[in-house]
Design brief:
The protein is an alpha/beta fold and 492 residues long. It has helices at residues 31-39, 43-50, 87-103, 120-135, 164-185, 193-207, 216-221, 225-231, 286-301, 346-358, 373-379, 391-404, 437-446, 481-490, and strands at residues 2-6, 15-22, 60-64, 71-78, 108-112, 154-158, 210-214, 239-245, 254-265, 306-316, 328-330, 336-338, 364-369, 384-388, 408-410, 428-429, 454-458, 464-465, 475-476. Helices cover 35% and strands 21% of the residues. The mean pLDDT is 97. Bound molecules: ligand BES, manganese (II) ion and zinc ion (ZN).
């Protein structure tokens, strides 16, 4: 499928289907559209009247145009009130049009939407992202998929002539989001610490990043007892992945992205019980998937900042080698941790990942993790929690997420709650009381970052979608990639 920005007037465009966006309370067609309607023998007016189309956000209508017409079908999409239009609604509209066009077996599609905020580049990018993300189908694990794939061959964005760079950006970012989705969606017998390292290797060679893989012995030498404690029970070797993107010139900033990368979380000896969603725990590397997805996108976008991508990948399993509940682990910064719950493993892996990252001397660290069920209880399925020690960093991430349409909500770094992690015998426990569980998890991580501005995103909710919504399909969302990309671009 090819997306192109063109300046062909609506009246002259020909193809299988033309999609037109209309604002609420403004479905009276005028100007160019009125002329087009005339040319199509009143089809558009008729469609509006027959379907009582009011331009409400998310509404749509489609009809066939009489034969001999230069356009086979007309698709109308409602944009809601003009003053309420957000960039993410443009993205969602692109997705809705693409889904409809695919269902209608359209091969050549034209899209005529208003330019958002007088910004044709942002408009073209958002529509393209919506199309690419909505049409992504993951048939890797089906021997005979019902839906044989995309019929769309070309999509013309009318009024977006000269926006090729924006469309390419959408494709590059889209490839990162899709990588993240496919990593999360793949089961634990397919995506393992070994394959995650291989994926990093592919990104490195495709996009010219440098890659360092620390094997178990390397991690031992660095004293990563916390990460390795989690890795002990697995038959698979842990892989500590460190990808580095360096720009051509002098970088403006040095930044780091760290992702929780549990390719499976059984809970360990505190094994996850019935109803715990253990069968969904292949997605426990969603933070790492977003990290690798962002690396893939950033490797193509080539911003002027140096970016480090870190994934401490392992499984949380049970075996005779498993850490016992109550074991004391020593992290690479010397801090000791009483593991009062082996199911709070993500923070144990992140502890050593954060210590390693801070030693790189970066200006800011952002970690992403499917860290706590408590965060889902607090914010629901669609919103990630944000904790930060630095307001500038928090603000930058909130702006980036707003632009991406990925929802974040800042949560308190309530120092007093650290009391809940006090241990009789070690420097801290890895688990506190049930109440405020996502906050104590963030406070635990904070023990492993000394002074670098740091932010933590708990993405346990939005990493997965139960049903299709906007440009997200049911399943893995690739949450975080677009926020990370926007944040990095805002820093360079
Ligand atoms: N990976 C889970 C968190 C999770 C739960 C992600 C549900 C997505 C959906 C994490 O490792 C975990 O098990 N957390 C425990 C922490 C508890 C033992 C303090 C939890 O949230 O129950
Ligand atoms: Mn767990
Ligand atoms: Zn986990």
């Amino acid at each position: 499928m090819q997306i192109r920005g063109i300046d062909t007037p609506v009246l002259e465009w020909t193809g299988d289907a033309l999609a037109i966006g209309l604002f609420e309370e403004n479905t009276e067609i005028t100007g160019e559209l009125a002329q087009l309607d005339e040319k199509l023998a009143g089809t558009i007016q008729e469609l509006i009247a027959e379907t009582e189309f009011e331009g409400k956000a998310g509404s749509k209508a489609v009809t066939r145009v009489g034969s001999n017409s230069p356009i086979r079908k007309i698709i109308l999409v409602g944009l809601g009130k003009a003053e309420d239009l957000k960039l993410d609604a443009v993205r969602t509209t692109g997705a809705a049009i693409a889904r409809m066009a695919n269902k209608e077996k359209v091969k050549t599609l034209g899209i005529s939407l208003p330019i958002f905020n007088n910004d044709p580049a942002a408009t073209a990018q958002a529509i393209s992202e919506g199309i690419i993300l909505a049409l992504h189908q993951d048939n890797r694990f089906k021997s005979d998929p019902e839906d044989k794939g995309i019929k769309l061959e070309t999509v013309d964005l009318l009024g977006c002539g000269g926006q090729d760079a924006a469309i390419i950006r959408a494709e590059q970012i889209g490839s990162g989001v899709i990588l993240a989705r496919e990593l999360v969606a793949a089961p634990a017998n397919s995506v393992t610490p070994i394959t995650m390292a291989q994926t990093a290797e592919e990104i490195a060679s495709e996009c010219g990043l440098s890659l360092e893989i620390l094997e178990k012995e390397d991690c031992e030498k660095l004293g990563m007892g916390s990460f390795l404690g989690v890795a002990m029970a697995s038959d698979l070797p842990p892989k500590f992945i460190h990808l580095t993107y360096k720009p051509e010139g002098t970088p403006t900033r040095k930044l780091a992205i760290v992702g929780k990368s549990l390719t499976f979380d059984s809970g360990g000896l505190n094994i996850k019980g019935v109803g715990s969603g253990i069968e969904t725990m292949k997605m426990d590397m969603g933070g790492g998937a977003a990290t690798l997805g962002a690396a893939k996108a950033i490797g193509q976008l080539k911003p002027n900042a140096e970016i480090h991508f870190i994934c401490a990948a392992t499984e949380n399993m049970i075996s005779g080698h498993a850490m016992h509940p109550g074991d004391i682990l020593t992290a690479s910064n010397g801090k000791t941790i009483e593991v009062n719950n082996t199911d709070a493993e993500g923070r144990l892996t992140l502890a050593d990942a954060l210590v390693f990252t801070e030693k790189l001397g970066v200006d800011a660290i952002v970690d992403l993790a499917t860290l706590t069920g408590a965060c889902i209880i607090a914010l629901g399925d669609d919103i990630a929690g944000l904790w930060s020690t630095d307001e500038t960093l928090a603000t930058g991430l909130k702006k980036a997420s707003e632009k991406a349409g990925e929802k974040l909500w800042q949560m308190p770094m309530e120092e007093q709650y650290f009391d809940g992690l006090k241990s009789q015998i070690a420097d801290m426990k890895n688990t506190g009381p049930r109440a405020g569980g996502s906050i104590t998890a963030a406070l635990f991580l904070k023990q492993f970052v000394k002074e670098t501005p740091w932010a933590h995103l708990d993405i346990a909710g939005p990493v997965w979608a139960d049903k299709e919504n906007g440009y997200n399909n049911a399943g893995a969302t690739g949450f975080g990639v677009r926020t990370l990309v926007n944040w990095v671009l805002s820093q360079s």
